[in-house]
Amino acid sequence: MKLFTRQIEETQILTNLIINKYSNLKTARESTWKTRIDAAKIVSHRNTGNKNSIWTNDYPIFNTLPKKAIMTVCNGLMGHVMSPSLNWFRFNSINKNFYSTDKIAGASDYLENVQQSLLQLFSITSFYSSVKMTILDALIQGTGILLSLDDQDHGKIHYKCIDPQFVCIGEDAYEQVDTVFREYSLTAIQAYQLFGEELPKSIIESYKNGSQDSTSFKFLDCVYPEGIMYSQEKKDNIKVTIKKFAHVVYSFEGNTIVQESGYDELPYHIFRYRRETTEHAYGVGIIMDLLPDILKLQDFSRTMQTGSQRQSEPAMYFPYAWQTDGGVNNNPRSTNYVDMNAGQPYSLASTLRLDSLLNVISKLEDYIYEATTAKLFDILMRTADVQQTATWVNEIKGESLVLMASTMDTLQQEIIIPVVMRTYNILRRMGYIPPLPEQLKETAKYGQIKIELEGPLIKRMRSFMQANGIIHGLNFIASILKINPNTSVNFDWDEIARGGATAQGLPQNMIKEYIDVQKIKQQQLQVEQQQQERQQLIEMSQIAKNTGNINLEHMNNMEANSSA
Question: Do residues 222 and 181 make contact, with C-beta atoms less than 8 angstroms apart?
Answer without folding.
Answer: yes
